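Data availability (excerpt). The following record was deposited with the supplementary files.
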Amino acid sequence: MAPDAALAPAIASHRFGLSQSSLSSVGTEPRAWVTSQLRRPALLDTSGLPDSAAVAETTRLLRQMAVPMSEPRRQLREGNQQALRRRWQHQIETPTPVYERWVMFWANHFTVSATKGATLGMVWPFENEAIRPNATGRFVTLLRAATVHPGMLLYLDNAQSIGPDSRQGQRRGRGLNENLARELLELHTVGVRGGYTQTDVRELARLLTGWTVGNAQRPEPGFVPALHDPGSKQVMGRTYREGPQALDEVLADLARHPATAEHLADKLARHFVTDDPPPALVQAVARRYRDTDGDLLAVADALFDHDLAWAPHRPGKVRRPEELMLAAHRLLQLPVGMPERTQAALTTMGQPVGRAPSPQGWPDRHDDWLGPDALLKRVEWAMAVGRANGNLADARQLADLAWGPALSGESRQQIARAESGAQALTLLLASPEFQRR
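Predicted structure:
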């Protein structure tokens, strides 16, 4: 379908952003409003938040203590809450919500999850140190930052991977862990159809040995030769000499692989536009990736400036629960407050933030989020927000300001007939226009 100029401001606001309280803020050039945000983003202030080094030290202390509610555990919990509160408040207030959506996409692409003891406090330092500083540079730079960050090395067990023939491997009898190598190929670069084999996974795992986190004797993370499997490695038809330089060489080759361009283009188009993106859109994004050697700003331009990205795709992408919450707070200009209650509500709706169920991250298709029970939980969330905040804004006026001609006649009529402010807001938050983008 061709773009509809009348719908473009709503598409910019809700499909690519996190919902503006008024479409007038998008201006008269919606495409420019979208693409300019990645060039001049409002950056998250991370000063004073726990960094990966502090989290790693706290985690080491926690492992040495047998008391469940120890001081280190409290520090990790409070650090997580502080980082999440800062992040959410920034996303609610930011004038560049498209950039935040872009960061969220890449943080999910390179998932680190707090589902194991070693990563309980690493999710937000990983996003702040590896993803945010590199989300608009070259993909290979982002790929390297994500791969060697302590959060990723711990989450995918490379910190415990030891070359079987390395000095430490022969001495300690511990061996190879293939988790990071497998996800680096399957999820982060060439994709499941990229043509790699199990032998490639093992060889890449050998190449990655030595890249580990710090410990009490060696505080800095980095490359430890005593853990590195000696000899050359062959990954997807290319040979790499032993040593730390092989990491940059293999990541550069994987980033330039044609399958990586296709995999990333398809995933970007599916996330930002529609569950089954038009092949012409995917090919345009992949072509720009190849032509610019993975320049992510150029890739974003190819995606967000393509006519097919602005066509009405009905019924529209389903918002994940975290996006619902952020959009509601932005529409109502409502501060996030203490994050614990919000976290509980998101968990009830199926998205315990920071605890993605697997290295694949949060799923991205309609069927993953809109089962019967999930729909009920979303309606219950809308009712709770409506009851608590129905007096903050006239939902009838807000719906018109925030959606304009994109609001269906049915939704407009239901909201207009509401018996109270709380019911009107509930109906807006439960409407197809709000639940989808």
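Summary of structural features: The chain has a mean pLDDT of 95.
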